[in-house]
Amino acid sequence: MNERKIALITGITGQDGSYLSEFLLDQGYEVHGIIRRTSTFNTDRIDHIYIDPHSPDAKLFLHYGDLTDGTTLRRILEQVKPREIYNLGAQSHVRVSFDSPEYTVDSVAMGALRILEAVRDYQQRTGIEVRFYQAGSSEMFGKVIEVPQTETTPFYPRSPYSCAKVYAHWQTINYRESYDLFACNGILFNHESPRRGETFVTRKITRAVARIVEGTQQKLYLGNLDSKRDWGYAKDYVRAMWMMLQQDQPDDYVVATGETYEIKEFLDIAFGHVNLDWHNYVAFDPRYLRPAEVDLLIGDPTKAREKLGWKPSVTFEELVKLMVNADLINLNLPTPDGSKGVDSTLNRRNFASIVD
Ligand code: NAP
Ligand code: G4F
């Protein structure tokens, strides 16, 4: 299909953006990413795949921009001329979205709209198809009405973040139907990895386990331990994003493992992996509670399996252990099973001229 394999990724510096970049580079793509200007470096997750853009081997290029800045998004689109756009950028923390609802909605909901508008105009003017992936979330199901959740389960969002994602979801469908855009929604359930942001519950736990083993942390403060999540491995999930854009027709897909676990079960495995009992270390702090909680998420990935041929490759237990191992390795500590670790890109900063 696509003759020139050029992809543009918003949120390239995030967990998924880093895995997707690696995946697309392996597939022979030229990859362009939008990064935000920050006063300290924010490219740790992609430093290991970045090479100086002056080199003839360079295939990864970075551009300053922001989902709240439509003019720049349009300019980058015109400059890069991508055939595929992956919209992964977001203020993606649910708890934080209650503190900063306006900004969250601007980046998540309006951000998606700004790109869709830019793509609509670009495609109409040039006649060149630009395929669009929208990073939707199982948080959209919120107060679940149906178990397990499928592509047709009604949404009941429970946070500013998920309300914004629902808006982006429906605009993506609206632009597909109104302007014939090849636009897909991935409804991705929680996916984790050693590159997961440190303030999401899984990484907060695995990082704490390593620091407790090291002796530099005594307590781990958490909020609600009763909610259940369908947790998968991020590297598997970015593959599904790409698969959606390679189909003959645009569509929407749930991407999940089909299994759900309590946070307490995550704690059992994470602490158990280093022979510790989490009850001796975990304490409750109400600041981590949310005004409204999502109690249970479990996805039905049948459509993704049957139409895309996608399936997860890592079990829940393997995921927890690989994350604990990576955090131990980050601290130069041995792993209980002798594993050398996967995916840890931290502390491998490459100071090539990423930023001008
Ligand atoms: P993440 O690690 O939090 O990364 C978010 C990315 O968005 C970062 O690159 C961040 O840049 C960028 N970003 C934030 N605000 C932006 C703005 N205003 N303009 C441009 N970029 C901005 O998230 P993730 O886990 O990789 O998730 C990727 C996407 O999938 C997000 O849209 C998320 O909401 C969605 N999603 C995630 C999951 C999951 O379980 N991980 C599940 C369903 C959906 P900085 O590095 O500069 O902060
Ligand atoms: O790890 P979490 O913050 O992830 P959450 O809220 O499920 O959202 C993540 O997954 C979504 C997909 O469903 C994405 F769309 C979203 O961008 C993000 O990646 O919290 C998981 C659960 C919640 O029930 C929360 O209340 O863990 C509970 N929790 C308990 N203590 C905590 C903590 N969460 C965090 N972040 N920190 C705590 O101390």
Folded structure, characterized:
With 356 residues, the protein is of the alpha/beta class. It has helices spanning 15-26, 70-80, 94-99, 101-126, 160-179, 201-214, 234-245, 263-272, 302-308, 316-330, and strands at 6-10, 30-35, 60-64, 84-87, 131-137, 183-188, 191-192, 220-222, 228-229, 232-233, 252-255, 261-262, 282-284. The chain has a seven-stranded parallel sheet with strand order 3-2-1-4-5-6-11, sandwiched between helices. Strands 7-10 form a two-stranded parallel ribbon. Strands 8-13 form a two-stranded parallel ribbon. Helix 1 (15-26) packs across helix 7 (234-245) and helix 6 crosses helix 10. The protein starts with 5 loop residues before the first strand and ends in a 26-residue tail after the last helix. The chain binds NADP nicotinamide-adenine-dinucleotide phosphate and ligand G4F.
Q: List bound small molecules.
A: NADP nicotinamide-adenine-dinucleotide phosphate, ligand G4F
Percent strand:
5-15%
CATH architecture of the domain at 6-193 and 231-255: 3-Layer(aba) Sandwich
Number of helices: 10
CATH topology of the domain at 6-193 and 231-255: Rossmann fold
Low-confidence stretches: 347-356
Q: For the CA atoms, what is the radius of gyration?
A: 20 Å
Mean pLDDT: 95
Strand order of the largest sheet: 3-2-1-4-5-6-11
Compute the separation of the termini in Å.
35 Å
What structural class do you assign from the helix and strand content?
Answer: alpha/beta
Summarize the main sheet. 7 strands, parallel
Structural shape:
globular
Query: Secondary-structure element order, as H and E?
Result: EHEEHEHHEHEEHEEEHEEHEHH
Q: Would you state the CATH class of the domain at 6-193 and 231-255?
A: Alpha Beta
Helix content: 25-40%
- The strand count comes to 13
CATH superfamily of the domain at 6-193 and 231-255: NAD(P)-binding Rossmann-like Domain
